[in-house]
Design brief:
87 residues, elongated
């Protein structure tokens, strides 16, 4: 692997990270990464009707109620953010 290949791969990664929020970046902490993963998962569940129907049957709820529950969980999927230390 040459230095130019490494530069090309890094520039492509930086481009993807700038374009798509969920791909992360160097300053992303563990909590923010987990929130992105949870929100992406809930959005996928809502967007795929068969998966939503599966969850509705498994939890004995209507599909509309499951959709509502998933949208509510998207607000704070991992609970409140941890306290930040201001330096």
């Amino acid at each position: 692997m040459q230095a130019s290949d490494r530069f090309n791969i890094n520039s492509q990664l930086e481009h993807l990270q700038a374009k798509y929020v969920g791909t992360g970046h160097a300053d992303l902490n563990r909590f923010e990464w987990a929130v992105n993963i949870q929100r992406d998962s809930f959005a996928s569940y809502i967007g795929h009707y068969p998966v939503l129907a599966y969850f509705a049957i498994a939890e004995n709820e209507s599909i509309g109620r499951e959709r509502y529950n998933f949208m509510q969980k998207m607000l704070l999927p991992c609970g409140l953010p941890p306290e930040r230390e201001d330096d």
